[in-house]
């Protein structure tokens, strides 16, 4: 249980809100556990027809809590709170919708690759700064992005790790619609209500068929990424990047080879 993830059932929608504003909704182990539990709950509860992930009007999430990152990732990736959440999300049986605004950093972008419909405010800043932090891709992004966007676009997002706008994300085909931030959640709720009116077993079959061609490869990739990620977390490069964040300066990677 954590007060930083709020879940609420609303007309057959499981609304899951990331709520840690003082840390820009950065995700802790406890928050990943709650997010995974929410996906599980949606699967188990016949009254829930779809899941909506959101944050606030000015922040989706600043990604993994950097303090937790510095403490490393224990053991088998799939058993870690973040690994469990990603595996549950990637194989979710019911439609998953996201409404994002403001920062959507790291897993705040990669978790969207596993959502069925994504609505983003025009204030959204997507970013996958893994290499910038001495880390490597996660959440299946090293598989899904090159196959969806092409190799060089994926490399740009993952190797240069710069922020990109909702318009960019829309152009790249990563989101469905760009909204005014005050309307993002409403647009997503409207889509949820449309999903709720559809034949539920037909939607589950559609989702399963959309996922089927890549699901095994995706799981293998997430395991390989998780293993490499855990190694990178212990690297001197990552230590320098985390120190730099705490000291509010740019990291200096010049001494590494
Ligand atoms: N983990 C832990 N704390 C975080 C955090 C994170 N991922 N992101 C932000 N915070 C904290 C900040 O340290 C700051 O704390 P302070 O008030 O004690 O100084 C507070 O949240 C507010 O963040 P701030 O950076 O002042 O907000 P901003 O609006 O200027 O910038 C971001 C927002 C998201 C662009 C910026 O916080 C950021 O780049 N965060 C790190 C993102 C990241 O690298 N995530 C990991 C991805 S793999």
Please summarize what this structure is.
The protein has 257 residues and is of the alpha/beta class. It is 46% helix and 15% strand. It has 10 helices and 9 strands.
Walkthrough of the structure:
With 257 residues, the protein is α/β, with parallel strands linked by helices. The protein has a domain at 5-181: 2-enoyl-CoA Hydratase, Chain A, domain 1. The protein has helices at 29-44, 66-70, 81-90, 107-110, 141-149, 151-160, 166-171, 184-197, 200-233, 236-246; strands spanning 5-10, 13-18, 50-54, 96-100, 103-105, 117-121, 125-127, 164-165, 177-179. The strands form 2 sheets. It has a 6-stranded mixed beta sheet with strand order 1-2-3-4-6-9, sandwiched between helices. Helix 3 runs antiparallel to helix 9 (200-233). It is globular. Residues 23-24, 26, 62-67, 103, 105-106, 129-130, 133 line the site of coenzyme A (COA).
